[in-house]
Amino acid sequence: MKQLDRYSMMIVMKYFNDINDFYNGIIVCKKFKEIPLMFHFNPIPYNKRVDKLFPNIQTQYVFSYFDEIKENVEKRIAWFSYSYSNYLLNQDNFIHFNKIILSSSTLLKNEILPEVITDLADNCFQGTNFNSIILSSRITSIGNSCFSSSKIISLSLPPYLRELPYRSLYNCFYLQSILLPQELIFIREQCFTSCSRLTSVILSNWITSLETETFSRCSSLIVISLPSKLQRIEDSCFSYCTALKDLTLPSTLTHIGAFAFSHCSSLTQIKLPPLLEVIKDYSFSFCSSLSQLTFPMNLKYISPGSFSCCCSLHILNIPNSLTFIHPTAFNSCYSKILDIPFKKTKKRSRKTMNFICNAIQ
């Protein structure tokens, strides 16, 4: 049986959490007894026992506020979160902090963030009067409502950011442009809600879901590039995007939520993705300029009010796969041409079809 060599065992020991684990590890084999001498940092919180076991420490790793400090080391590296306010008070303690959190914009002298800051706390820039904020490339996370209700006009987000949390830019009425990271994965609920001057957005291809009200009431949004891997658009995601004229839905999309595109009054045409089987309640209601609509061949169910008040809709090609259309699905639509296949299904009743014919007359 193949055994671990000394260097491989050292890598394993880096994941030990207790000093007794190290003692148990080095007694397994004679060649492991020299491993503690190979460590030039403390892999667990420092104390006198650790100092005795690891005599060659040159860099102290500090894991919490309460760790003992070793004298006569070349440097110290902190692996816990540290507030920027405390950092300003303790810059001369020779500790390098890997994670420094900014809790409030009032701690800044101007709109340029210091390079040492890696994280922005909840509500950090909420309501700030800064027109622009220059973020360090070291920033890896921002908190809920971080920029909400601020007067920021443009924003370039750092490349290592993977998530935009809840209400990140909610009610940023002055925001006109934003550059998102190419490897952004998550955009949470109401992230851009009521960014009424935002005109265009290019989304990362890593995003698979757009959550509730993500772009709701972005009334100046004209162009948005949807990810090629997008699978879900949740409730009211683009509701009241009254300037949105053209939209290409990716073929991977399987779910469009209720009210998702409601009141997109400039939207003229839409081709629904091939994997979509259900159109949810009022998902395209009040799209008053919508004139062309292409249904997927696998569509089975059209819910209440899905296309109600789409008064410009004039051609409907209903696929054979459809088994049910709610009587209010096309309320206040005035279609000139209605193509209903003759194939009959058990669930498609004559009464239901009469409702549709009456609704679009």
UniProtKB/TrEMBL annotation:
Transmembrane segments: none annotated. SUPFAM superfamilies: L domain-like. InterPro entries: LRR_5, LRR_dom_sf, Surface_bspA-like. It comes from the Eukaryota. This is Leucine rich repeat protein, BspA family protein. The lineage of its organism: Eukaryota, Amoebozoa, Evosea, Archamoebae, Mastigamoebida.
